[in-house]
Every structure is written in C-alpha cells, then in structure tokens.
Specification:
This protein has 3 helices and 10 strands; from the N terminus they run βββαββαβββββα. The protein is α+β, with helices and mostly antiparallel strands and 177 residues long. Strands 1-2-4-5-10-9-8-7-6-3 form a 10-stranded antiparallel sheet, sandwiched between helices. The mean pLDDT is 84.
C-alpha cells in the first residue's frame, strides 16, 4: 500500500475496517451487480486480503472536494481477471445505475464510462452521478496488477487521481510479487 506523498496527494494507510457488515449493496439491474460489488462487503469475487488508504490533496484542498481513497484487494488465481472482465461488461451495459444497501441508503443515476487509466495489466474507469445530490457523484478507476485490484475513488468535484500515482501503486504491487 502506498503511503506518503505521491503525485500531489498524500496517502495515509487506514487500520479500521473499510466496510461494516450491513454494507451489502445490491443493484436493481443484475447487469450492474459487478459494479455494485465494488461498494459491497459481500462481492461475488471475495478478496483474500484487503488494505486501504485515504488520499488527501497535498495542498489541503480536501475540504473543497479533493482527495479520495484507494482500496487494494488480493484475489485467488484468476479471480481478479474475471472480476475485471465483468466490470468492463457491466460498465458498458449499465446506463441507469440503481443500487441499495442493507444499511438503508439508495442511489440512482446515470453511469458514464471514462477513458482507461492506461495503467496496470488492465483498467476500467467510470463515474456515477446520483439523484440524492444532483451534479455530485463519484469517479472510480479500477486497476488490475496480476491478482490484485486497486480501486481509486474520488468525488466528481475533486481533483482526479493522476495516472502517475496509479502507476506508482502498480509498480509497488509488482515488486511485492
């Protein structure tokens, strides 16, 4: 996991759990479920290990919508590749992204496929703008490195995560083997 300053962001590894047991997220359209699984404590492709870090913009712009997070997941052989294929298919097929959580929240809005980050063994990026907070949403980029996925999440209003930071995380995962 990255830590410290990289490409205008400061990565701070977190020790508390990322999700609670009630963070089970379900998509209204089954074609969208691989994307919903990125927010769910019970994804179809279960990780063998997970770590995450908060990403803050170095100049302190986090209060203005900057920053985000990166979640690293490690998967059994073939699972990361399978999930990446499913994510790409879901991003292409899912135009109306409607999800709900056992925690009690619901979100619905358009999903837009974004250009690939061009980093890692494979990547996919998309943004989703919800109806609860119009014109505000999340941008998510998923980068695969062998059997690991790095999921970068930012606000559509904040600074995007630069490919250089994603490349650095990819290289660090490669070195770790």
């Amino acid at each position: 996991m990255l830590s410290g300053k990289h490409s205008g962001f400061e990565a701070t590894p977190q020790s508390e759990p990322l999700l609670e047991d009630v963070d089970v997220v379900t998509a209204a359209d089954p074609a969208c479920q691989p994307l919903a699984d990125l927010w769910s404590v019970t994804p179809r492709h279960e990780a063998t290990a997970t770590a995450w870090a908060a990403l803050a913009v170095e100049n302190g712009a986090a209060a203005a919508g900057g920053g985000g997070s990166v979640v690293l997941t490690s998967h059994p052989e073939g699972e990361a590749e399978a999930w990446m294929r499913e994510l790409k298919a879901a991003a292409a097929a899912c135009k109306d992204f409607e999800v709900s959580s056992q925690r009690g929240w619901k979100e619905r809005g358009p999903l837009t496929v974004l250009p690939s980050a061009g980093v890692g063994d494979d990547s996919v990026a998309f943004s989703a703008v919800g109806t609860r907070t119009p014109h505000k949403g999340q941008t998510m980029t998923v980068v695969r490195t062998s059997g690991s996925l790095a999921v970068y999440l930012t606000s559509t209003e904040g600074d995007p995560i630069p490919p250089a930071l994603m490349k650095r995380q990819h290289e660090q995962l490669r070195q770790a083997g």
